[in-house]
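Re: the request from the purification team.
They wanted to know what the chain is likely to look like in 3D before they choose a buffer screen. I agreed to run a prediction and write the result into the notebook, where they can find it.
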Amino acid sequence: MITEKGFTLIEVLVATSILGLISLTILTTFGSGFAVYERVQSYGGGQADALLALEEMETRLRSLFPFSEIRFEGEAQKISFPAIIETIVIVDDEDMAVSSIGQISYYLDRQENDETMLTSGQKNYSQALSGVEAVENISVSLASVKDLRFRYYAFDKKEGTYVWKDSWPAEEVNLPTGVKIELTFQDGKREIPLVRTVMIPSVRVVDERIGSDDEDGEEEGEGQGNV
């Protein structure tokens, strides 16, 4: 006698329920993942631009050197200083990049659509000395930002300690010991701040040399006094 085997109604209902649950879980996970992916892509673009801009400014400031002809000048939303820049010259009908001393600036620039951009501009040596504005084709928008602030770290003789200053006049011969960059960019309805403090190595080297010279001078004075 041959008996036919099949699924009972309960087994079919259980299997259907399990398949439905698995399908719902997959669809929910896929939907959530797609939403997160879109948000990360949007957020990452703005954040990536801001981080790249910070990295560029930090690299430039770390290689900052004192140069009497082109002074360091800092305001709340703009900073300018001497730097090695590349300019294009024509040699034998061919474009050639030439490195030279010039001036580079970073500042907050308001666009016609009220969007504010972190912008870099550069001047060659003669432009920097004459004080003309940076040529438009070498001004580059780096990132869309909400706000930009610079602060300057230096020794205050009156206070007898290091302090943060809101500006650094061009008349000041010395360089600041450090620069704090406070950059804020918009992510939807959120404002995300990025802060980077950059210490300037060349200033520390100068300070160390001054300290060693003072020590040598004191030792020489003591030696002369003993004679």
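For the purification team: The chain has one domain: 46-210.
Please add any questions underneath this entry.
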